[in-house]
């Protein structure tokens, strides 16, 4: 079965609702290094445990000692790192600090699995980012890969990353051909993320054959102008995404 992972769950009751809808993993985001101890996020982790869900936590900062302190406090099932791995032109950054951090996390918390976001350019531009090479370098210290959409390249009218220095929450799909190549190459499970919605989850699972799908922006509630509202899910969208993922599984298994 293809697992369903939903971000950004920041309240315990919403985590419980995700469980009722058939979600497998709930992801939360820690945005502040100054006020990282948040009762609401601790309650999300507790609710996930009670509901039999896997919990994932993204810290949007990179200081190793602080990250270790955060993981010790929240004790999520997954530590999710989504730092940018390339510059704006797709040239790889120095991965040594990231590998060192993941090594420290693995040593300090052997029960916490490490999920690493791997950048994939938008459809038709997959060649711009050395996705497969980056994955090979990071695989020894990673337990799960999550594809996400890279928006660089310096083209006219390119959108910018919503959170500078990190990839994700673009609402746009990545090049699924590259994602499928990553699934074939990878020795760890790959979760397909980047613009996954109730409308495209079925096709995405069939084309990429990932271990899971992840959705954030495309399952958010929207405001009166149709713009996604961060940190607020639309249960109907989540329900349909879960159903469409299961429908793809049935198609695959015959």
Summarize the structure.
Helix content is 36%, strand content 21%. The protein has helices at residues 12-20, 39-51, 64-74, 96-108, 131-138, 176-185, 201-208, 235-253; strands at residues 3-7, 25-30, 54-59, 78-81, 113-121, 144-150, 190-192, 212-215, 220-222, 228-233. Helix 7 packs parallel to helix 8 (235-253).
SSE string: EHEHEHEHEHEHEHEEEH
Count of DSSP-assigned helices: 8
Q: Which structural category do the helix and sheet elements fall into? A: alpha/beta
Distance between the termini: 13 Å
Task: Describe how the helices and strands are arranged.
Blueprint: E1 3-7, H1 12-20, E2 25-30, H2 39-51, E3 54-59, H3 64-74, E4 78-81, H4 96-108, E5 113-121, H5 131-138, E6 144-150, H6 176-185, E7 190-192, H7 201-208, E8 212-215, E9 220-222, E10 228-233, H8 235-253
Parallel strand pairs: 1-2, 1-8, 2-3, 3-4, 4-5, 5-6, 6-7, 7-8
Antiparallel strand pairs: 9-10
Helix pairs in contact: 1-2, 7-8
